[in-house]
Structures are given as C-alpha cells and as structure tokens.
Design brief:
The chain is an all-alpha fold. The longest helix is centred in the middle third of the chain and has 26 residues. The chain has 13 helices and 2 strands. The relative contact order is 0.14. The chain has one domain. It is about 70% helix and about 0% strand. A two-stranded antiparallel ribbon has the order 1-2.
Length: about 270
C-alpha cells in the first residue's frame, strides 16, 4: 500500500511540475498580466474612493474594509481561474482526448494536480502585486497567523470546489461541437458570482441568496472575506463546513457526470 501511495505521489508530482514550466515559457505574457493587474487595481481604488466620497459606510463596511477586500480580491484572483470547459473543448477539437483517457492514471486526478500546481504558481507570481498594494494603496494584511491559516484552508477548499464544478460543467462539451458559448457563460458567472468586483454583502439580500446557491463564491469571496475581516474569525468553522459540504457533493457529482458523458465522446480532429 505504501509503495502504491509513493508511486501515485510520484506520478501526480511529475504532472504538477509541468505548471511552472508553462509560465517560464511565456515570460512576456506574465509581465503583461502584471501590468494589466496594476492598471486594474488603480482603477478599482479610484472607483471605490469616489463611491465613498458621499458616504462613510456601505452595508456596514467602511472605505478601508472595502479597499482591503477589493485589493485582496485582485491579488488572489487566480483562485477564480477555470480550465474545465475550454480544456475539454480543446481536447475534443484536437483529438487529444483519446490519448488522455488511455493514460494509466485517473483523468480527473491528474487534472486536479495540474490545477493546484498552476494555482500555486499563479499566486507566487502575484507577490509583486501584493507588495505594490501594501506600498502604494495602503493595504494592511492581517498579522495574525491564525487568520492566514484559515484563509489558506478556505482557499484550497474553495479552489477544489470550483474545480469539481468546472469539471461537471466541462462535461457538457461532450454533447456539443463548439464550446465558446459555454466558456462565455462560465466566465460571466465567475466574474459576477465570485465576488471579484464587490463584496457579496453589498448585494441585495435576494441576490445574495442566488449567489450563495451556486459554488463559485467559495473560491474567492469566502477566503478573501475571512482574510480581509469582513467575515469574522468566529464564523470560520461554519464557512469551512459549508465549503466541505460543497466539495463532497460536487466531487461525487463531477465523477458521475463524467462517467456518463464520456460515453458521448466524438473526436473532431486529430
């Protein structure tokens, strides 16, 4: 059993090691992404300062709390990145899906390892953005190690939840010859329901109910709200349990949906 665990760890470790190499191969893209992020951050800070010029609080949040959340949401934006729909569509279009399914390793497991490695690499590359936010925009990250520990746990659980959601959504690619529409729908849902643009507590109650009924907010809003102090640490156990429930349910759903939809594979190219 130990030998089997070591073998699987070696396989998934080798798969995960490919993620940093991808970023190293496209260094210009990485620097351009950082520049765009800085410009976006400047725009968001100016926007919220203008909003708060006429009021002291919105939904119980003052300017500093809101800016802390917005800046952290930009820094940890990679938590919302997705690969499901586009990835499946590319495999079907190029005929690569046959090779992937024949590999002697769990298909979903290998993609999860790649996703986590890609996420870790992306977050490391966000460190310059964090330093800029602290130096020029007044971001004050929490000093309590417990807050950071809870944030990291929530981030891993949230990213895993959204991975399973995207996997199930990506399986719809097996039933169509073009995935562009699905990609647009997923991107739009991610931008609006993740809490990227504003804290979810600022939304009307009915809209908060809608947002909380889908799992996308688990990836960004839940961990960043804990890190920024919008969600107090006392509510962390409840938030983590909700994430865990989402993960268990979506993991089972994603594996079942894949087992059914993979029977509909139609290779478009090769």
């Amino acid at each position: 059993m130990i030998a089997s665990i070591r073998r699987k760890a070696s396989i998934y470790g080798a798969i995960a090691a490919m993620a940093p190499k991808f970023f190293l191969a496209y260094t210009i893209w990485v620097w351009m992404e950082l520049l765009v992020q800085i410009i976006t951050m400047v725009i968001f800070v100016a926007f919220w300062r203008a909003i708060y010029a006429e009021t002291s609080t919105i939904a119980g949040l003052d300017l500093q709390q809101t800016l802390s959340y917005i800046l952290l949401a930009r820094i940890f934006g990679p938590l919302t990145h997705t690969m499901g729909v586009g990835y499946f569509g590319r495999l079907l279009r190029d005929g690569q899906i046959e090779i992937e399914l024949l590999r002697p390793v769990d298909f979903q497991g290998q993609n999860y390892a790649m996703r986590m490695a890609d996420l870790l690499t992306s977050l490391i590359l966000q460190l310059p953005l964090l330093l800029i936010a602290v130096a020029f925009f007044g971001l004050r990250p929490p000093s309590d190690p417990l807050v950071w520990g809870v944030f990291l746990l929530a981030a891993v659980l949230g990213a895993s939840v959204v991975f399973c959601f995207d996997w199930a959504l990506g399986c719809l690619s097996f039933y169509t010859t073009e995935v562009w529409g699905l990609i647009v729908v997923r991107y739009t849902l991610g931008m609006f329901f993740s809490g990227t643009f504003l804290p979810i507590v600022m939304m009307p109650e009915w809209l908060q109910t809608v947002v909380n009924s889908v799992p996308i907010a688990q990836a960004l809003y839940v961990p960043v709200a804990l890190l920024s102090g919008i969600t107090p640490l006392s509510e962390a156990p409840r938030a983590l349990l909700i994430q865990l429930a989402w993960l268990v349910g979506l993991l089972a759903l994603s594996r079942w949906v894949f087992s059914v939809s993979v029977r509909k594979v139609t290779v478009q190219g090769g």
